[in-house]
Amino acid sequence: MQLLEIECLGQTLRLEGSLAGWQQLFWGDQCVSQINANADSETFSHQFSLHREGSEQGELQVELKGSLQWQPFDLQFELLVNDELLQENTLTEKDIEQRQIAQHTKQPIKFSFVGMAGLGLKLLKSAKVIKVLFAAGSLAAYSWLFSIEFAIALILCLVFHEYGHIKAMKYFGLKTKGIYLIPFVGGLALSDDKINTRWQDIVISIMGPFFGLILSVACLIGYWLTDIEILAGLAVFNALLNLFNMLPVLPLDGGHVLKSIAFSINSKVGLVACMLGAALGVYISYYFGLALLGFLLAIGSIEIFFEYKRRHLSDLLPLNRYAQIVSALWYVITVGGLSAIIWFVGQTGNDALSLPLKILAS
Fold first, then answer.
1. What is the mean pLDDT of the chain?
2. CA distances in angstroms from 341 to 103, 110, 150, 153, 349, listed in the order given
3. Where are the annotated coiled coils located (predicted)?
C-alpha cells in the first residue's frame, strides 16, 4: 500500500510497502530504492543520488529514514538532502483514512468486452433515471411474487439496510452515488471514492445489517405496544434478510467483514478464511436451492482471487489487533441480535411468523 507521498525538490516522492516489511521508494515514476521483506525491523532508511543540471551543488544525496509500526499504525519519517533536514512528520491511521486515493496515469483506451462492460457499468451508475426504473421494477417483481403490501415492506427494509452503508460512507467523507434497488437481488449502495483502510471496509459493510437490526428492534417494540401483527412480520423477515447478508461469504457484507479481519492477520489466513466461507456458501446454496447465492458466490470467487493476487500491493491499511477484536465482537453482536429476534418472534405460535425460525432450524 502507499505509505507516504510528499513533495521533494519539485518532484513527488512516494513510499510504498507491505505488512511483511517490503518497501519501495519512487521518485516520480522511477523506483530509486527498495527494501526486501523483513517484518522484524521497524526502522528503515532509503538513500539515492540526484544529479540536477544547473545546480550549484551538482549531485544531491537524498535520504528518507524513519520507523514504521503497523499495529497500531505509526509512521515517523525524516527527509534529508545532503544531510540537511528538509521535512519530518508522523502519520497515524487517521491520516491514512482521510487520504485521497492517488489517481494513476490513465492508459490508452483499447476495445475489449470487459472494458465495454465496465463503461456500461459506469453509465449505469451515473444515470439517475435507472434508480427509478430499478425501484419500480423491484416493486413490481416483489408484488408479483408476494403482495403489494409485502413488496413495500421489503423495499423499506432494503432501503434502510443500504442507508446504513451510505451513512458509514458519509462518516468517512466518501462521496456517494446513492441507493440502487435491483429486482430479485436486493439493494446496492455505491460510492464515487475508494476506501483507504480495512477498518473503513468493516464499518461500511457491517452498518447495513446493523441498521437492519435497529429497524427490527423498532418494529418489535411497536408490536409489543400495539399488538399489530404486521410489525412482528416486518421485524422477523427483516432480521432474516439481514442475517443472510451477514453470512461470511463474499460478496455479502459478512464476507467483507471476514475478509478484512483475516487479511489483516496475513494473506494466507485471509485466503483460507475466504475459501472456507465460500465452501459454506456452496453448501447453503445447494441445501436450500438458492440460485441467487450461487451467482453471488461466483462474483465472490473472483474477488477472493484478485484480493490474494494483489496482497503485496494492497492500498488498504490492515486492522490492528484491537480493531480485529472490536470487528469480531460487532459481528457476533449483530448476528446474535438478529437471531434472537427470529427466535423470539418464532415462539408466538403463528405459522407465518415462525417460518424464518423453521428455515434456520432446518
1. 80
2. 45, 52, 19, 17, 14
3. none
From 154, 256, 252, 157, select the one nearest 214 (Cα to Cα).
157
User: Would you tell me how many other CB atoms lie within 10 Å of the CB of residue 81?
Assistant: 16
- Answer for the pair 330, 319: CB distance below 8 angstroms, yes or no: no
Q: What is the DSSP string of 36-89?
A: ---TT--EEEEEEEEE-TT-TT-EEEEEEEEEEETTTTEEEEEEEETTEEEEEE
Average pLDDT over residues 298-311: 79
Query: Which of 311, 295, 207, 197 lies closest to 250 in space, CA to CA?
Result: 295
Across the beta sheet with 30-35, the strand order is 2-8, 11-17, 23-27, 30-35
pLDDT for 283 equals: 81
Cell numbers standing for residue 261:
479481519
pLDDT in tens, 279-292: 888 888 777 776 76
Higher pLDDT, 196 or 186: 196
* Mean pLDDT across 163-176: 91
Q: How many Å apart are CA 326 and CA 348, to the nearest integer?
A: 34
**What's residue 4's pLDDT?**
80
C-alpha cell at 259: 475478509
Rounded-to-integer distance, Cα 242 and Cα 338, Å: 8
Do 17 and 313 form a contact (C-beta atoms < 8 A)? no
Q: Cα-flanking dihedrals φ and ψ of residue 155, to 5°?
A: -65, -35
Q: Cα–Cα distance between 83 and 65 in angstroms, integer? A: 12
Question: Count of residues for the chain?
Answer: 362
